[in-house]
Design goal:
Layout lengths: L18 H7 L1 H4 L4 H14 L3 H29 L6 H4 L3 H6 L25 H24 L4 H27 L19 E4 L23 E4 L27 H29 L3 H27 L10 H17 L4 H32 L3 H32 L3 H9 L6
Helix pairs in contact: 1-4, 3-4, 3-7, 4-8, 7-8, 9-10, 9-11, 9-12, 10-13, 11-12, 12-13
Length: 431
């Protein structure tokens, strides 16, 4: 929620209006590196940000940039004011004088309209923070140039304030980026091709009296750098540069992720096989027809899920071997106890107990399939991702159907509000 306070963040004073300089100021009002672009960029990044701490940073600075826009606009308006009544002043920029009435508008110093194309928003927090640091640096330079071309003391004071705040924001963004703890060149999620990433191509070469020398420095020598002759100058029978080797994915998977995915799949395989034995007992124990039908459908789904897990192993080149799933063993044993205790209860209470046991199983499976799918995505096993996503969707749907049946049963049984609320609170995976 925004609230406008009728007071500028920095009070502006113009002793000698200069319409031509007022036109220059519009670069920081509606230009590519101006205050509106900064305000929109940071605010929209903030809206998209999932990190609450850094979202607060983005919204704080985005809001301050709106205050800066008001300062620049007020400053420019004072410098442009003579255009309203003075012919000679109006000739400095007829577009502003005639179309804009000698006031500010969302355009740059050349009269080009402001555009959202100025904004750099990727949805990757570390990448956006780097863009913001660069944006503040560019804005600082623009203010520096404006100060250089300004003779009015009050205007220079305001510009000095705005220029200083650009450095403040650079510091804040830089420290926010550093606090994320990401390596400097760890961008995105897909690793670069090993070897190729450390090759520096000497692509700008010359010869003879007018040829410029090939310089060396920390940007192309030392550390991991490998200085390479320009690929265009390399010869070979195939015409291809033998030193360039690019792969669509890293030659080696992150250490341990493959084994972790296999462990998760083997755990799920054993869990689902246990369920194919447990579900027939739950079908028989269900007293409410809709619940029995739901368990019957899910039994068929579970058998299909086992087949998909087998396909995942095949895609990974591994045998579909199950690993004892102690977590599911415990849940199945708990379900057996619920069935035995249900024999002593009325129909609604017995079936609600069954649903509670079944939902604990569903939540275990949902967590397992989510982990497996995410690992498969990280390892770029697209076929396995598709199969696991389908299993996950079925489990989530089954959980929702169980919720619906439970509500129907509670309505029929007219359960006390306190008991019903307790059950509803336990419906979520974290309950």
């Amino acid at each position: 929620m925004y609230h406008h306070v009728k007071k500028l963040m920095f009070t502006v004073r113009v002793d000698e209006p200069d319409p031509r300089f007022g036109n220059m100021l519009l670069e920081q009002f509606g230009g590519a590196n101006g205050e509106l672009a900064a305000a929109m960029q940071y605010s929209i990044q903030g809206l998209n940000c999932e990190d609450p701490d850094r979202k607060d940073l983005l919204m704080d600075i985005g809001t301050e940039e709106l205050s800066h826009l008001e300062v620049v606009g007020s400053l420019a308006r004072l410098h442009l004011k003579p255009m309203k009544f003075d012919r000679e002043a109006a000739e400095a920029d007829p577009l502003i004088a005639i179309a804009g009435g000698g006031g500010v508008s969302l355009c740059n110093s050349q009269g080009n309209a402001w555009t959202a194309d100025y904004l750099k928003i990727t949805g990757e927090l570390d990448v956006d923070l780097r863009s913001n640091i660069a944006a503040e640096a560019r804005a600082k330079i623009v203010y520096e140039r404006l100060i250089h071309f300004c003779d009015d003391a009050g205007t220079k004071d305001a510009l000095q304030f705005l220029m200083t705040r650009e450095i403040t924001h650079m510091k804040a963004f830089s420290r926010a980026l550093k606090s994320m703890g990401k390596p400097a060149f760890s961008i995105g999620r897909i690793a670069p091709t090993p070897g190729l990433v450390d090759q520096f191509f000497n692509d700008s070469t010359g010869s003879g009296d007018n040829g410029e020398i090939d310089t060396r420095g920390p940007w192309n020598e030392g550390d991991d750098w490998v200085f390479m002759e320009s690929p265009a100058l390399q010869s070979g029978d195939t015409g291809a540069a033998p030193s360039i080797v690019a792969e669509s994915s890293p030659s080696e998977s992150p250490v341990g992720l493959d084994d972790l995915l296999l462990d998760q799949l083997r755990d799920l395989l054993h869990a689902e096989k246990q369920l194919t034995k447990a579900l027939p007992q739950m079908i028989e124990a269900a007293r409410y027809d809709q619940l029995g039908e739901l368990f019957t459908v899910h039994l068929a789904e579970t058998e299909a899920q086992i087949e998909r897990l087998d396909e995942c192993f095949e895609l990974l080149g591994k045998k579909p071997r199950a690993k004892p799933c102690k977590g599911m063993q415990g849940l199945v044993e708990e379900g057996d106890e619920v069935i035995k205790e249900g024999a002593k209860k009325d129909d609604a209470a017995a079936d609600l107990g069954l649903i509670g046991a079944a939902q604990r199983v569903e939540h275990y499976e949902i967590a397992g399939y989510t982990t497996a799918r995410n690992l498969a995505q990280q390892l770029r096993h697209s076929g396995a991702v598709a199969l696991l996503s389908k299993n996950l969707a079925e489990e989530e749907n089954a959980d929702q159907l169980l919720n619906q049946v439970a509500r129907s049963l509670m309505s029929v049984a007219k359960m006390p509000a306190a008991i019903e609320q307790s059950f509803v609170e336990d419906e979520s995976p974290g309950g």
